[in-house]
Design a protein that fits this description.
- The protein is α+β, with helices and mostly antiparallel strands and 182 residues long.
- It has a single domain (3-137), classed as Aminopeptidase (3-Layer(aba) Sandwich), CATH 3.40.630.30.
- 31% of the residues lie in helices and 32% in strands.
- The protein has six helices and eight strands; from the N terminus they run H-E-E-H-H-H-E-E-E-H-E-H-E-E.
- It has helices at residues 3-10, 34-43, 46-53, 62-68, 121-135, 150-158; strands spanning 14-17, 23-28, 76-85, 88-99, 105-112, 140-146, 162-165, 172-178.
- Strands 1-2-3-4-5-6-8-7 form an eight-stranded mixed beta sheet, sandwiched between helices.
- A hairpin with a 2-residue loop joins strand 3 (76-85) and strand 4.
- The longest helix is centred in the last third of the chain and has 15 residues, at 121-135.
Amino acid sequence: MSSEQSHKALSRAVTEKLRNGQTVTIRPMERSDLELERAFITNLSPESRHQRFLGGVGAPTQKLLEALTDIDHDKREAFLAVIDDADEVKEIGVSRYALDSTGTAAECAVVIADDWQMQGLGTLLLDRLIESARARGIEHLYSTDSASNNKLREVAIHMGWQCRADPHDSTQVIYTRDLTAT
């Protein structure tokens, strides 16, 4: 598949089945998803918000939501996992990356709604993010996370990410994934 074909394929929504049998749609995030993102973050448990933002984020500010939904699908990419819940679309997970100043690496993050964790959704979202990053020629993904996030550690190591202590903060770890190797 050419790079252009890969970009087109990644711009489409796909349906996936989770371990619990639920079907979800994974699609690129758009600026118009701001209210979906607001509801998603607001409904995360305090622990999940802390793990995602490495600190105390309560109700998300308008500025934060605008930054999170300012996706250009080149230097900043994000994929949403959504379900139809009582005739309403509901966000249940998101993966994202932002290209760093080198142009060859990107910082990434994945967060899954509390009720949807341990169903394989994080892996699906991360796989889509990795596919997108590779299609754009990004060589490395990295993520700074809480050292206490044991669920993430298990998934990351299982998916081939390297883990090292953050040299500037002993409460955090840095995960890296080389995308040039197959």
